[in-house]
Design brief:
The complex is a heterodimer of chains A (361) and B (533). Chain A contains twelve helices and four strands; from the N terminus they run H-H-E-H-E-E-H-E-H-H-H-H-H-H-H-H. The longest helix of chain A is centred in the C-terminal third of the chain and has 35 residues. In chain A, helix 5 packs parallel to helix 9. Chain B is built from 14 helices and 19 strands. Chain B is elongated and about 115 Å long. The relative contact order of chain B is 0.12. The chains are: A alpha+beta (361), B alpha+beta (533). Chains A and B meet through helix 4, strand 4, helix 5, helix 9 and helix 10 of A and helix 7, strand 18, helix 11, helix 12 and helix 13 of B.
């Protein structure tokens, strides 16, 4: 046999650690929420808020303050200048908040200001992105819609395929679409709709006793929230690419959760003499080496991307890095304990499956 | 039921060959070689973020276009009516949608309405009121059906015009698409001079001919006191030293004619060697221009381009023959660009740039290099890790991982999908997912071996038990990818595509192909050899 990271007879009592884990998660979410509240919501990139970013590369080292000084003449609304990439790249990102500007005028203004105030320093405008307010609003609505549909489809898939309960899954789909249609009719903004969709999903999962779906949805919301909070704490912009990263995190987090759940279900059937907490602990331990290996290798490649992929993709890769790490944590410490909690509070009889659910494919 | 090993090997080889068939010509330059002639011509298209270029979303100002069309109807109604001896006063567009005019003699009401019904069946009378002296004030508007048609046509014409301009500008493989809400998406790959492109595409080149209001008092106009049918504009004149000065001028609000009738525009030079743009109109434009000049002889006609007056010559006489010229003391370059946009077709309505994304070619190249470097290093780390961790079985995992990447590349080439920077990230993530499938299987096999099962049974159990988990996990990821593809544009779609291709390829390679290696080993090993995993 090859190497082993986790000894096969490892029996860590993960459930015992759940309160500590909840505390850590709670603190992380709270810190993120606080940051979001203090900053008045997520920091939107130009994809969603509208505006312009211009990436400029100089052919020799220039101080940030000199670039800022030089561009003051261009008189651009909401001007912000920051270094981009590493120091030896000599690259800067210039932002303006207004999107009513005409891009070639801005280009000319910047060109003139830099020519006058930084004489002798050659530069090249490498990238210019301008998003108008209407496009920004559309992209925002689209992104929210995407998150909404992803959660909806996934909740339905898990309830149906995973719990073999397509009927409640269909009820949930109908309830969710109906509820959202009603709220949309009231003219609520998309952001609130997503929150409402989440609450409805969780409520329906609870009512219909779709415990696995509930655990998985809570875990993925947990992951997205922590990643969102971290981005706010790190002062990173939310843009289209980051939403794409969120959707990937959702997919990945579920992937991880499902593998553990799968094992729990298998063990519930096979190990009839074990109590539910023992089954959950055993299942997490049995899949632990896979979880660590897969997360480890994936994190390794994503880390390569963060460190070597270049500035344009850095934030996207960073979101993946945070999300995958948090997703691994949540499938062990959040999703599985929730199953146990549910069986106590909501009177979900997971063990009843031992008798009835023999057709699992 | 299990397929025989031989059939599975054949299938795997077919997969490998198909992959190679598309991936090889896409990844290497085989032009001129024997292989280059035999293999299908395929390439992996690079997104704008990787090859550099410009992405624009343009919004057509539909209300303005509709208003222009209505103004044109006003001219047409007046001229048709005139031919029939019906007298119509002051046609005027109100709120961009309504055309109001006054019938001078109420007795001609039946004649007018018959004419409207017969010749202008796309218009409907919205209201009419009899005023003192028997005049009747009419308001007409487009029928709903026709209005939808006009709006559709506006966007189509705008697309045609923009395509013409880009063709004249000379960009290879431009991609121009219509989107919802009268939006147009323009993609110009590998563009070297984004500034000029924006100037040429974005310039509305909305040419209007309007009368100058010579009675109006400029000083009063500057203070905001204007006759109701007039507006303040600025006239651009170039001074001998090359600077441009702007002088205020009061012009009538009504547009007599727009640039839509232009068939040709050329740069010419007058006797002072000053560049001007000569215009040719089509038949309808010629008639219109002839009547306008005939009716307004002795008055000044302002030539308004995108809201700026370029010149305002006095109309000396009725001009027949469909020719006109725009003078404005242009530089030769300005005149050339103006002629280009007018020749390519003036836009039927102004177009606004709603979104612009430009990536310089050097940044694109750098992005590819860095992305690929990251992918290679990440991939290499995984290969080494898998080999060390699973020894011989690690080699199997690595072999199918390489096949997996080959298939993703082949898929990109075969479906003509676009590789973007997030797409490279998708490939990197795919490597992680593909490894996951193998890890799941291998860990399961190890578990079964630990339970004391023979390698043959352990492999069988490992594959069948892990399969379910792999399917569930991958389907949820595919759901996320499908949603991403649905809502995403450009680079994000690229990510969704590579992610989906990667998952499909990994199902094939990590489940189907890797099993072949194990079964092969089981068949040929010496009895009792332990499985190296």
């Amino acid at each position: 046999m090859g190497l082993q990271i986790i000894r096969p007879d490892t029996r860590i009592n993960f459930l015992k650690m759940r309160y500590g884990a909840f505390l850590i998660s709670g603190l992380l979410i709270l810190a993120g929420l606080l940051s979001l509240v203090v900053k008045g919501g997520p920091q939107l990139g130009i994809d969603f808020s509208g505006g312009m970013i211009i990436q400029i590369k100089f052919d020799q080292p220039v101080e940030l303050s000199r670039v800022q000084q030089a561009l003051r003449d261009a008189d651009l609304p909401g001007l912000g200048v920051q270094r981009f990439g590493t120091a030896q790249d000599n690259e800067f990102l210039v932002r303006t908040s207004s999107s009513d500007l005409v891009s070639d005028e801005v280009r000319r203004d910047i060109q003139n200001s830099l020519d006058q105030n930084l004489a002798g320093v050659g530069f090249d405008i490498q990238r210019l992105e301008m998003v108008g307010p209407r496009v920004g609003a559309d992209l925002r609505a689209q992104a929210m819609e995407a998150l909404f549909y992803a959660i909806l489809l996934i909740a339905i898939y898990i309830s149906g395929r995973f719990e073999q309960r397509w009927f409640p899954a269909v009820i949930m789909a109908a309830g969710l679409t109906g509820g959202i249609a009603a709220l949309r009719w009231l003219g609520l903004p998309m952001e609130l709709l997503v929150v409402a969709a989440l609450l409805i999903t969780i409520g329906l999962c609870w009512k219909l006793k779709l415990s696995y779906a509930l655990g998985a949805v809570v875990a993925l919301v947990h992951d997205v929230f922590i990643t969102l909070g971290m981005f706010s704490l790190l002062n990173k912009d939310l843009d289209l690419a980051i939403i794409a990263a969120f959707l990937t995190i959702i997919g990945y987090s579920l992937n991880d959760t499902i593998i553990v759940y799968d094992r729990i279900r298998e063990n519930i059937r096979d190990k009839v003499d074990m109590t539910l907490p023992k089954v959950i602990n055993l299942s997490i331990n049995q899949t632990l080496s896979r979880t660590i290996l897969t997360s480890g290798t994936t994190l390794m490649v994503v880390l390569c991307l963060v460190l070597l992929g270049g500035g344009v993709i850095h934030d996207f890769a960073l979101a993946l890095l945070i999300g995958i790490a948090v997703g691994t944590f949540s499938s062990i410490f959040i999703a599985s304990p929730i199953l146990l909690g549910l069986s106590k509070i909501a009177d979900v009889d997971l063990e009843a499956e031992r008798a009835t659910d023999t057709v699992a494919v | 039921m299990k397929m025989s090993l031989r059939i599975r090997i054949v299938l795997a080889v077919i997969g490998l060959l198909l992959g190679g068939l598309y991936a090889l010509p896409a990844l290497t330059n085989l032009q001129g070689t024997f292989l280059g002639k035999v293999l299908p011509e395929s390439e992996i298209r690079l997104g704008l973020d990787l090859r550099g270029g410009m992405h624009l979303t343009l919004g057509v100002d539909i209300p303005r276009g509709v208003a222009n069309t209505m103004a044109q109807f006003g001219q047409d109604i007046r001229s048709e009516a005139q031919d029939e001896g019906i007298f119509i006063l002051r046609p005027q567009v109100v709120n961009d949608v309504k055309l109001e005019f006054t019938l001078a003699r109420g007795a001609q009401q039946d004649d007018l309405e018959r004419m409207l019904r017969n010749r202008f069946d796309n218009l409907q009378i919205l209201s009419k009121e009899t005023q003192e002296a028997g005049q009747i004030r009419y308001a007409v508007g487009m029928t709903q059906q026709y209005r939808a048609h006009v709006e559709d046509l506006l966007v189509e014409q705008a697309i045609k015009t923009i395509r013409n301009r880009i063709d004249q500008f000379g960009v290879a493989e431009p991609d121009i698409r219509r989107q919802a809400d009268g939006r147009i998406q323009v993609q110009l790959p590998g563009l070297q001079d984004p500034e000029r492109a924006v100037a040429i595409i974005g310039q509305t080149a909305h040419l209007e001919f309007k009368l100058v209001d010579d009675q109006a008092d400029i000083d009063r106009a500057l203070r905001g006191i204007l006759p109701p049918d007039a507006e303040l504009a600025s006239m651009h004149t170039r001074n001998p030293d090359g600077s441009v000065s702007q002088t205020p001028i009061v012009i009538k609000r009504d547009t007599l004619m727009t640039g839509e009738f232009i068939t040709d525009a050329r740069v010419s030079f007058d006797q002072f060697n000053q560049a001007y743009v000569g215009l040719n109109f089509n038949a309808r434009g010629s008639r219109l221009f002839e009547r306008i000049t005939g009716e307004n002889t002795g008055r000044r006609l302002a030539i308004v381009l995108d809201g700026n007056v370029h010149s305002a010559p006095v109309i000396q006489e009725r001009i027949a023959g469909g020719r006109a010229s725009i003078t404005g003391r242009f530089t030769t370059e300005e005149a050339t660009d103006l002629a280009l946009v007018l020749r390519a077709g003036a836009l039927p309505a102004p177009v606004h740039i709603m979104e612009e994304r430009t990536v310089g070619p050097s940044l694109g190249r750098e992005s590819i290099e860095r992305g690929l470097q990251a992918a290679l290093i990440g991939g290499a780390l995984i290969l080494v890790f898998m080999l060390v961790y699973y020894s011989m079985s690690g080699i199997v995992a690595n072999a199918v991982l390489c096949l997996n990447i080959l298939l993703v590349m082949a898929g990109l080439a075969a479906f003509g999908a676009t590789l973007t920077l997030p797409g490279i990230a998708g490939i990197i993530l795919t490597i992680g997912i593909a490894v996951d499938a193998n890890v799941l299987i291998f860990e399961r096999i190890r578990e079964e071996i630990r339970r004391g099962l023979t390698p043959a049974i352990a492999i069988d159990e490992g594959y069948s038990r892990a399969l379910k988990a792999i399917l569930d996990a991958n389907i949820t990821t595919i759901i996320a990818a499908i949603v991403l593809y649905q809502f995403g544009t450009g680079p994000i779609r690229g990510f969704a595509v590579t992610l989906s291709l990667g998952i499909l390829a990994s199902m094939f390679t990590a489940i189907f192909v890797s099993r072949i290696f194990f079964d092969f080993w089981l068949k040929w090993r010496k009895p009792g050899t332990p499985l190296s995993i």
